[in-house]
């Protein structure tokens, strides 16, 4: 496994990303981050609502865009759901109706933003079962098919310092492509604060928008970091 900081440092434009990992002190954590190139993408905030959800919102509330602005994380007594788009609310609602994680992740589609067709990335974490998580990725085919490729991945029993990362994009500095289906990583972080530091420092400074690290059952206690061009 490669170190998280090296995987991100080798990616000139990761886009949005989801991470599930266990730090050196044995704490299981989730993380979500945003990077962006356009002024509209960079003019966003990541903040908590009064209900404890995490919201990606425009700096100017009059400029809502359903692809850029969405609920990024929600929790219930049983589940934590986080990801890069409006599907987070869909999946959380399905879980609340009693659907199992694999069914809750089924039927999702990639974003309608040609030519890259951004993947929709979603993580469901079980609040009770010792760090179990299900990743879902709705991806466009590498060919001409318009039908969605749907990947699901079940993660359990992570050892300290292990994790799984998904990013929407990968770039070599010249071309942008859809990110790898998933990457297993190692983290040098010992604590939640360390993980946020490691994640933030590895993202391209000129593209960073926001990042959050959180524990299951305590989304309201998320640690959030944002660039100075966005409001806290």
TrEMBL record:
Domain Inosine monophosphate cyclohydrolase-like: from-to ranges: 13-213
Cited Pfam families: IMP_cyclohyd (PF07826)
Gene3D superfamilies according to UniProt: Inosine monophosphate cyclohydrolase-like (3.60.20.20)
Protein name per UniProt: IMP cyclohydrolase
Organism: Streptomyces milbemycinicus
């Amino acid at each position: 496994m490669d170190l998280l900081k090296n995987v991100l440092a080798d990616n000139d434009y990761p886009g949005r990303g989801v991470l599930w990992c266990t730090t050196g002190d044995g704490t299981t954590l989730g993380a979500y981050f945003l990077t962006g190139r356009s002024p509209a993408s960079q003019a966003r905030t990541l903040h908590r609502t009064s209900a404890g959800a995490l919201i990606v919102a425009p700096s100017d509330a009059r400029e809502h865009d359903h692809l850029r602005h969405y609920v990024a994380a929600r929790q219930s007594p049983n589940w934590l759901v986080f990801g890069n788009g409006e599907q987070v609310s869909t999946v959380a609602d399905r879980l609340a109706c009693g659907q199992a994680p694999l069914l809750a992740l089924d039927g999702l589609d990639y974003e309608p933003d040609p030519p890259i067709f951004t993947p929709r990335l979603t993580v469901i974490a079980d609040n009770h079962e010792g760090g179990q998580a299900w990743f879902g990725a709705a991806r466009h085919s590498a060919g001409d098919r318009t039908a969605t490729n749907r990947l699901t991945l079940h993660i359990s029993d992570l050892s300290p310092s292990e994790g799984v990362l998904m990013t929407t994009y990968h770039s070599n500095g010249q071309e942008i492509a859809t990110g790898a289906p998933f990457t297993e990583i190692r983290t040098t972080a010992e604590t939640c604060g360390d993980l946020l530091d490691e994640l933030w420092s590895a993202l391209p400074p000129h593209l960073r928008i926001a990042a959050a690290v959180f524990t299951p059952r305590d989304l309201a206690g998320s640690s959030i970091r944002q660039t100075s061009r966005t409001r806290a």
